[in-house]
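Dear colleague,

As promised, here are the two records you asked about, laid out in our usual form so they can be pasted straight into your sheet.

NAME FIELD: protein one
SEQUENCE, THEN STRUCTURE:
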Amino acid sequence: MTLEEQGVLFLEALRRTRVAVPEGTLLYRAAGEVLEMAAAYHSDGMTFLRAGDLVNALAGFAYGLGWLDAGSRLGLLEPSIAHPPGAAGACIPAALAARLDEKTHRYQRMLEIALSAVETGPDEASPLSRGAEELRSTARSWYTDGRGRLDAGDLAGALARFSYGYAWLDAGIRAGLFRITGERGLFTV
């Protein structure tokens, strides 16, 4: 799939997505922010794509889709349809290999640090504590999958997975499920 096709599919997903919690409730603002972040990263991805910056377009789309999927899993957004990163290797030309290598390795390091820079916010007896652990586990799983892609030489696939997984942590922070115990600059707070 090309990045242009990914951008179109992402836009279609955004157009179908609605806030799932009633206006005026405590979670309504969190839901709106999660949806706003997903839309902002679609816009960023399209801007990068039009400028020929395919590496940042790939990262932006994967990150935005991570926000969308984390928001759906939290019950903040509907419909609940997953949009995990697929095969991305063919979408980055060889001429951008150095840029792709640098960004992929940087995002791998950032996500690794970010995973250890948050802790569950809700009390362990709360269902939200289990939800926070699920979001962290999802981010960790995408980190692990990204490492596998990186080890196999699929830098684009690795970057997409690191970006997607990172968004799950950021969405969890925005929704109040995590406390930042490390470097705040790693997160969109």
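NAME FIELD: protein two
SEQUENCE, THEN STRUCTURE:
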Amino acid sequence: MNSYVKIAITGGPSGGKTTLIEALKKELGQKCAIVPEAASILYRGGFPRYKEAQAMIHAQKAIYFTQRELEELICIVSKKNLIVCDRGSLDSVAYWPDSEAHFFSAMESSKEKEFARYDWVIHLDTASVEFYDTTNPIRTETFQEAWDLNAKIKKAWEGHPRRVIISHNEDFLSKMTTSLAVIHAIMAHKSADEIKKEILQC
């Protein structure tokens, strides 16, 4: 059994993932280790972005395997009790141009194996159109594309036993406060049902 808790922070573009992770770095400091987003590392490093189906498959394979190696590396070397991942492996399903079954066949994996990699999944919904952030230089999606991706990512993680969905809130600070409260509750060993009852419904 792992000596750490691993959380995947996921959701559609402009959901607040980066802001939440930066807040965690400041609030928890040395108490947690952050696994950076594989896609950002690859695309900022010059990995080509094409819209053709085969090109998207190669890109998502690169992201998936980079993500997996990053997670294993951080889990081994950090020795922290809390590992926070900027996105999780199943996010690639939302960008995969073929079926979910084809994705798992290509990766030689299964939904159950991918679920088992994460103790918790926190999904941050994409912001509404009025609050959609277009300042990220590697974000190429229109609002509608982001909204559709948000739904696909949500579906990809459907069935994870400890998934918490945090809906869009026009008060972004409240959304971040709720997200941090969820993580503190996880660290306090509360169950998914307790979190949903005590935090998300208050």
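A couple of things worth noting about protein two: The radius of gyration is 16 Å. The chain is about 50% helix and 10% strand.

Best,
R.
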